[in-house]
Design brief:
single chain; 386 residues; mainly beta; Beta-galactosidase, Chain A, domain 5; 9-stranded antiparallel β-sheet; 5-stranded antiparallel β-sheet; 3 helices; globular; binds alpha-D-galactopyranose
Length: 386
């Protein structure tokens, strides 16, 4: 070996030692990488309650931010097909806006998701009168539903996931509902890029219960454009047609040959302004679909794909229905995160739930909860790209 060869030999040797070291460090780093959850202050409610904001991050970098005010998902960052993260839900960057003007952005809805006609129902022969907050009807739990209360929060962490367990005790006759309802909602972000929401409740008097989440999605990113290009598939052959007040008539109607047919993936905007009575009543889509699956069993509810960014969201649920709302009441007056203006139909909601007005529709799956029973439902949102 001459000097030059010896020099090259030494350089190569040191390079390989260095690279082996780097590999080991990166492997160790990967092996140690765990999902995380952190807590920051999100301010005080108008009545002086402290509120926090929790940031959940999984090992792939997906981020979900949740506040214990209303159990609201304030941000949800998922990658597009090039790995670029975007926030795909509408919301505000401060508590005050949530308190003053939120149209249920990202919240937990309860005690009853969607409408109850005239705010009245009869249970075991007794008539109950609920708060009326949507014309003559009761909507999303009333004047101060579960979206406007402060929940107790507890972080949960394992190697596979991070979670936030929220607890709230809804007092007997709150908003007119009978029974003390003890509610726990657990959000879990898994390393498989799933956001799971598990709902549990029990009561000390017969009552009704129908909980859901009200995320406003746009898979292209929040506040960038309308939802028209998002392609939606809903696993349902039937929907529940409504009257002008958006109360179901009681009929289960076939979606076949109507703009309600999402059995094959279809752009949300493709038929939204069709000359169709149901779409006129809703000002677009604002209806409940009857899922092709047994209530109580986990099954596919819906799948959404955005061709521009490649984002896919698949929703599985134990619920019998899903309310697809196409953001028809958004009109450009709300300014959200990053100063984004939320214009007409800039997002869509897929609220897994029992059908609206079930307490007054004996043929719909029951929403009655009795002492000794446990209300238990789960919905899973799986994020991927294509
Ligand atoms: C639900 C309802 C809509 C509307 C939104 C919130 O999806 O069905 O009519 O009230 O919530 O704005």
């Amino acid at each position: 070996m001459n000097d030059r060869q010896r020099f090259i030999y030494v350089v190569l040797l040191w390079t390989s030692v260095f690279l082996a070291g780097c590999k080991e460090i990166s492997q160790t780093k990967e092996a140690n990488m765990e999902p995380s959850i952190t807590k920051t202050d999100f301010g005080k409610t108008k009545d002086g309650q402290n509120v926090d904001l929790y940031t959940l991050t999984n090992i792939n970098g997906l981020v979900v931010k949740i506040t214990n005010y209303g159990g609201i998902v304030t941000e949800l960052w998922t990658p597009d097909r090039n790995g670029k993260l975007d926030d795909i839900v509408l919301g505000f960057d401060n508590l005050k806006d949530y308190e003053e003007k939120s149209p249920y952005f990202g919240c937990i809805v309860g005690r009853y998701g969607n409408r109850i006609a005239k705010g009245k129902f009869t249970l075991d022969g007794k008539e109950y009168t609920l708060a009326v907050n949507n014309g003559e009807n009761h909507l999303h739990g009333g004047l101060k539903g579960f979206d406007k209360v402060v929940w107790d929060a507890e972080s949960i962490q394992s190697a596979e996931s991070v979670g936030l367990k929220l607890h709230y005790l809804s007092k007997d006759m709150e908003e007119g509902y009978p029974g003390n309802l003890d509610v726990t909602v657990t959000y879990t972000l898994t390393n498989k890029d799933e956001l799971q929401i598990a709902y549990e409740a029990s009561t000390d008097k017969p009552t009704i219960c129908n909980l859901t989440n009200h995320n406003y999605y746009n898979l292209a990113g929040q506040g960038v454009r309308d939802n028209y290009e998002n392609q939606l598939m809903i696993n349902a052959d039937y929907f529940t047609p409504v009257d002008e007040g958006l109360i179901p008539t009681g009929e289960l109607r076939s979606v076949k040959d109507t703009p309600m047919d999402f059995t094959r993936p279809t752009a949300i905007g493709a038929r939204i302004d069709s000359d169709d009575t149901q779409l006129k009543y809703g000002g677009g889509y604002d209806h409940n679909w009857v899922l092709n699956k047994k209530a109580g069993e986990m099954g596919l509810a819906a799948k959404v794909y955005d061709p521009e960014t490649g984002r896919v969201m698949e929703i599985h649920t134990t619920e019998p229905g899903v309310q697809f709302y196409s953001g028809n009441f958004l009109d450009g007056t709300l300014v959200g995160k990053e100063g984004k203006v939320y214009k007409h139909r800039y997002a869509f909601c897929l609220e897994t739930q029992h059908y609206p007005d079930s307490p007054n529709k004996p043929d719909f799956p029951s929403t009655v909860l009795r002492p000794g029973q446990i209300y238990k439902t789960t919905t899973v949102h799986k994020f991927s790209t294509k």
